[in-house]
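Appendix B, Record 12. Input sequence as logged:
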Amino acid sequence: MNKEFGLHDEVEMKKPHPCGTNRWKIIRMGADIRIKCMGCQHSVMIPRKDFTKKMKKVLLSHQGE
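Logged structural output:
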């Protein structure tokens, strides 16, 4: 299954962040993806391969921007 996501999209991950929020925003894309927690604003950088495995779905897409 090919998951479509882009820069500034808000995504839901399979596991929630320790702050309790499960909503993340993609703030950098490349070989690694940096995502920011929408609850506590903590950012994490993970490899693209791991990100595609751990992402559940896109909640809000910003394709036009």
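The mean pLDDT is 90.
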